Amino acid sequence: MDPLRQSPSPCSSRPSSPKTPPCEIHGYVGIEDVLDQLKIKAMKMGFEFNIMVVGQSGLGKSTMVSTLFKSKVWKCTPPGLGMPIPQTLQLKSVTHVVEEKGVKLKLTVTDTPGFGDQINNDKCLRPLDIELLQRLCRTVNVVPVIARADSLTLEEREAFRRRIQHNLRTHCIEVYPQKCFDEDINDRILNSKIRDRIPFAVVGSDQEYLVNGRCVLGRKTKWGIIEVENMAHCEFLLLRDLLIRSHLQDLKDITHNVHYENYRVCRLNESHVLPRGPCWVNLAPTPPGPPVAPGPSKVCRQAREDSDDEEDDY
C-alpha cells in the first residue's frame, strides 16, 4: 500500500462537463502557491481525528489504539476481566494531541466498556454485532478487525475472516472502503485489495523486545516474539496504513460530506424546520411507517444552497 497515496474527497469539486477545455495561461500567475498556503495553514491548525473502538472487555482495544499512534492514549488501565461487568453501556472518551515532525493531530478515542460482555461469542458475528454494524455503517465508517489474532492459527484466521466476510455480505453491511466511493480505476484496484483482507487480523502491544539486534514492538510467548509490525505475524501494518498513511483524509471527507450530511438532512426532515431564505425548501411530512435510514450514498441536497450562497470565495 502506497503510504503517500492521497485519496480524493467523495464530494470534491469537478468540472461541470468532461469536455470543458482548459484555459491557456500566457504567463506565470502563481496558482501553484495555493498548495504552499494550504500546507502552512494545515501545519498551524493541525488535524482532528475521531475513533470509536467497540468490542468485549479484554480484547486489547486501548492497547491497539496506543500501538497505532505509538503513544499512551489512556493514562490509566481500563478495568480488566477481573473487574465487575458493567450493567449498562457508558461511552468514555479521551482526547490527546499527538505531534510528529511538527504536524499536530488532535486524537479523540471513544471506548465502549461492557459491550457484549454478557453474550457468548463462538467465533462468529453475534446478533448484537450484526445489529450494531447495520446501524453504524449508515452513520460512520466501519473498519472491522480480528483482535488478538495471535490466539488463532493461520488456517483458523483465514477461515474466520471468510466467515465474517460472508456475514457482512449476507446482512448488507457496507464497511470502509465502500465500493460506491471508488472514483477511478486506481481507487478500485487499491480498495479491492483492502476489502479482500478485511477484517484485518491484528495484534497490539506497547512492549519492545530485542530481536536479531533490533528493537521491535511485540508480544512475548513461550514460542517466541510475535512482532506487531511484521506482516508474516499479523496485519497490523495494513490497518495503520489504512487509518493513517493512505486514507485518513478520505475517512474524514466521507464522514463530513456523506454521513453527517445524511444525518443532518434526516433530522431536518424529521423536524420539518429549515431557515427561510432565498432557497428555502418546504419539506413534506414524513409518511407513516418505519423510518428509512439513509444509506452511504453521495447526496446533493438543495438545503445546502442556503449556506453555500452566503459563503464568499475570497
TrEMBL record:
<keyword id="KW-0963">Cytoplasm</keyword>
<feature type="compositionally biased region" description="Low complexity">
    <location>
        <begin position="7"/>
        <end position="17"/>
    </location>
</feature>
<dbReference type="Pfam" id="PF00735">
    <property type="entry name" value="Septin"/>
</dbReference>
<dbReference type="InterPro" id="IPR030379">
    <property type="entry name" value="G_SEPTIN_dom"/>
</dbReference>
<dbReference type="InterPro" id="IPR027417">
    <property type="entry name" value="P-loop_NTPase"/>
</dbReference>
<dbReference type="InterPro" id="IPR016491">
    <property type="entry name" value="Septin"/>
</dbReference>
<keyword id="KW-0342">GTP-binding</keyword>
<feature type="region of interest" description="Disordered">
    <location>
        <begin position="1"/>
        <end position="23"/>
    </location>
</feature>
<dbReference type="GO" id="GO:0005856">
    <property type="term" value="C:cytoskeleton"/>
</dbReference>
<comment type="similarity">
    <text>Belongs to the TRAFAC class TrmE-Era-EngA-EngB-Septin-like GTPase superfamily. Septin GTPase family.</text>
</comment>
<dbReference type="GO" id="GO:0005525">
    <property type="term" value="F:GTP binding"/>
</dbReference>
<feature type="domain" description="Septin-type G">
    <location>
        <begin position="1"/>
        <end position="270"/>
    </location>
</feature>
<protein>
    <submittedName>
        <fullName>Septin 12</fullName>
    </submittedName>
</protein>
<keyword id="KW-0206">Cytoskeleton</keyword>
<keyword id="KW-0547">Nucleotide-binding</keyword>
<feature type="region of interest" description="Disordered">
    <location>
        <begin position="287"/>
        <end position="314"/>
    </location>
</feature>
